[in-house]
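Notes to self after the call with IL:
- keep both proteins in one doc
- input above output, always
- annotate only the second one for now

Protein 1:
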Amino acid sequence: MDFLQWFRLKVLEDDDSNLIGQCGEDLTARVLKISKLFGRRGLMLRNVYIPSEIGETTEIDLIYITQKGLFVIESKNYSGWIFGRENDRYWTQSLPDRSKHRFYNPIWQNRGHIKWLKAFLQNEAITFFSLIVFSERCKLKKVQYRENGCSVINRNELFAELKYYWKNAPDILTEVQTQEIYDSLQILQNADEALKQAHIGRIQQMLSGDAEKEPEPAQKSVPPPETAASAADAAAPDQNGAPAVCPRCGAPLVLRTAARGERAGKQFYGCSAYPKCRYIWNL
């Protein structure tokens, strides 16, 4: 972050969400660099775009690759009070002016990130740790979760949390293996602007309230390795470029028209297994 960005955020109190998010990631990355004091070298990647569906990606804020495994970090640079439970679809941010804002369950969000990261790496020996890191400016109120290998913390607790895992988790990777994983993921770090905008567009569509919207990453399923190729072969495109069958579950796709939302009146192909499967192909 350069001086101008810092000045806007700290002095002018700019409420630009992208700027605030970037600042939070910068501060979290700084803590990860300090973790080298543990005596082991960790390799860090930021803003990694992992392929999750045909033509789709999911963005991971930070990945910290160590001999203990991969720490997948979702950074939330929020203020106010945070309420949420592991099984709640949405969590709530409550601000001093009594306004409230909902956001997608970050535990589910990071669970989806890890699922696609596993599918990409295809290495069952790797251990994954899910870290949801909130700003020190917020207070976690009634945040409940029991998932093993998952931590929901404030940023000032991150160093101690890493130290705990470092002390109690066994080494499962060599330095050579951590470097190999880093090299395989590094190519996904620098996404071009078109890919970033497409990713942002999918998130905005998800939050628009459209009844036909796509599910969040945590709800998407990965085809078993032995069936992934056959599913892709079956999904031959029609004259509109859409697959004949759902590439996610294999059910036929049907032509539909959106009844409401930003795409009201526009046609799309939807999975015939809806609502069990919510795959869509927009025309």
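Protein 2 (the one to annotate):
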Amino acid sequence: MADSADTRSDSLTSEGDLGATLTEEERLFVASQWSLMWLHFKRHKLALAGGIVIVVMYFMAIFHGFLAPYDKLTRTEFIFMRPQPLIFNDGEKFSLRPYTLGIEATMDSKTFTRSFTYDESVRYPVKFLNRGDEYSFLGLFKTDIHLFGVERPGTLFILGTDELGRDLFSRAIYGGAISLSIGLIGVISSFVLGALLGGISGFYGGVTDTIIQRTIEFIISIPTIPLWMALSAAVPASWNAMQVYFAITIILSLHGWCGLARIVRGKLLETSNEDFVMAAKLAGSSDWRIITRHLLPSFMSYLIVHMTLAIPNMILGETSLSFLGLGLRPPVVSWGVLLQQATNIRTVATYPWIMYPGLFVIFTVLSFNFMGDGLRDAADPYKV
């Protein structure tokens, strides 16, 4: 009896040693699908960089009040001031703590143009956890602590100011909270609608499939921008900012679910006759359970890729509508609202820094596309 126990112990020890000595190639054969997807995704350097940028963008959107040195509506006397330089050299050596110089604003009595001169004798060091404008931290409590800033009367305009002397960097961070959330909420809404209707269409077929597919074809045949413009124009001008926000989110979702519904339908037609589906039917599972617990999870990786590529389209849709004046309106701040001034070519030529918030849109959309490409390649981890 003791010999048998010793033999079993030696066998377990040898198996453990064997598992510890598995080569990397052998580990791939026993790895789960999600592990293989992560391995393929890590090899896509642009996708990994894009994912990091997106995480940073959403972190800035969540903690916008803390990260922005000013409130989005704070006005100053420095109207249309170009980006203020940060100086790291104190005249003798390099310093890790930058500072800004004092500013004097003057106006030409003949042309009524403003000019700004720097006073090198007045320096305002940039401080962390600086006190400034009061804001609501995550909607929980009021505070005036910001990540960085300068003591007043010093100024810190990293991207310059607009026509009312408001800091464009702070407004771009506040605008990201709106634009990024609209993209995320809009995609989630279209995902639920597309997965539900596409699942019903592919699972039941027949008349139900015909009605849903003809509806999708009709919606897709309508040009996107005119459709959005028509629906946005129907939003009452008397609605408050929150009502307009949800209206724009719904408008963007109404068109975004069609492509996903077609993908879900095609996948369901492909997998509806698989053995695991037949087993679920024989076990007495309802149609709803088969669709939601068996069919949809079987190709969830493809749905995640589609969502990742759809979010930048939602962001661009909101930016386009707000840019044309048909979406969100001031005092709401979004990236599209910030770019409304760019419709005047004379203003752009004179004050080109008002287009800097557009860089946030460009970096975000490119990052989502890079990450979507990486996820698309990783969605089929078993290919060579």
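Annotation: The longest strand covers residues 94-107. Residues 109 and 115 are 11 Å apart (CA to CA).
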